[in-house]
């Protein structure tokens, strides 16, 4: 019997230069693999806890305690287990922590171990990670959401909405979709440069120009789409991550500082409705705040048949919360971030719940990323059909896209939903 022989962890740096956990698992057959845990900047308050040292080093953001938990408390229980029973390993991590949100061991400790176990098991069996986790049914390359203009908490500018994304929906394969996206990104850079805007990039590779309104980034992006020779709506659609929890006040009023406007939930929904009528917008993420469930019901009733309404801060990849949302008919899609929930198995349970109830799933990165490509394989394994992992810039983002290009090449003729994703 092959078993987990050694478990270790070290503090490494993510794409923002902040510490994060790298977990490494060695099996009795000599197989070894590691996983690096991502970290978010715009986080939902119900997310699993990311354990930080809160000491002087790294401005309090060190993760030595989380690493120590891996090498002591977790290692004592996990060493000797089979690496091929992911659910058993993950259930042990949940029981060992004993809290709802991993506030004891830290979700960065448990997820690092969970991911590393999955990866080393696949390696031991000489299988690609997507095939190990997804079986014979892992055949779908996700349609990417590429964040090419940043606002909100991802940028120091006057734009309130956090992410303006393009979705290359009108293509037959993933590689052609990526080519179009890369060309549009380069045209966007030239347009911004010619307009005397700063073309430095944010955490996820998007530009952060000071534009006059929350509508202007859409206009600039569509100009880039046209100059690149592609058709808006037909080949390239627009997706928004509003991240409205970041600009709602304690009275439930949404404060659009860039436009000097204050809107109630109903008024913000009307704002979206006008944008959707005017532009080829197919997806809106976190259109209302994580606490505004009554507003979300109205949003879903009004726009749920027109666009994809994605819950991120709202659902935090948590099956219990998603189940409540399904019962109340709130949203129609869920963002999937493994570090919001703490283990690979729990992430898979949330995806399966969503898919059974016809909620779309979008596999997602975090703003603090690394060279780790786990989510690329994970998206294919679970047939999420969509992935959100930044623009065509910054190597930690491109690592995921390049991994997906490699998977496409391995599979030969994978499914790329493209035109089917938002067909009426």
Write the layout of secondary structure elements.
Elements: E1 4-13, E2 19-27, E3 32-36, H1 64-78, H2 86-97, H3 107-124, H4 129-134, E4 140-141, E5 143-150, E6 163-168, H5 174-194, H6 216-227, E7 236-241, E8 254-256, E9 261-263, H7 265-278, E10 281-285, H8 293-303, E11 308-311, H9 319-327, E12 333-336, H10 338-341, H11 344-356, E13 360-364, H12 374-381, E14 385-388, H13 395-411, E15 415-416
Helix pairs in contact: 1-2, 1-3, 2-3, 5-6, 7-8, 9-11, 12-13
Describe the protein's architecture and organization.
The chain has helices at 64-78, 86-97, 107-124, 129-134, 174-194, 216-227, 265-278, 293-303, 319-327, 338-341, 344-356, 374-381, 395-411, and strands at 4-13, 19-27, 32-36, 140-141, 143-150, 163-168, 236-241, 254-256, 261-263, 281-285, 308-311, 333-336, 360-364, 385-388, 415-416. Helix content is 38%, strand content 18%. Helix 1 crosses helix 3, helix 2 (86-97) runs antiparallel to helix 3 (107-124) and helix 7 runs parallel beside helix 8 (293-303). It has 424 residues and is of the alpha/beta class. Strand 10 (281-285), helix 8 and strand 11 (308-311) form a beta-alpha-beta unit. The chain starts with a strand and ends in an 8-residue tail after the last strand. The protein is built from 13 helices and 15 strands. It is globular and about 60 Å long. Strands 5-6-7-10-11-12-13-14 form an eight-stranded mixed barrel, surrounded by five helices. Strands 1-2-3 form a three-stranded antiparallel beta sheet. The model has no long low-confidence stretch (mean pLDDT 95).
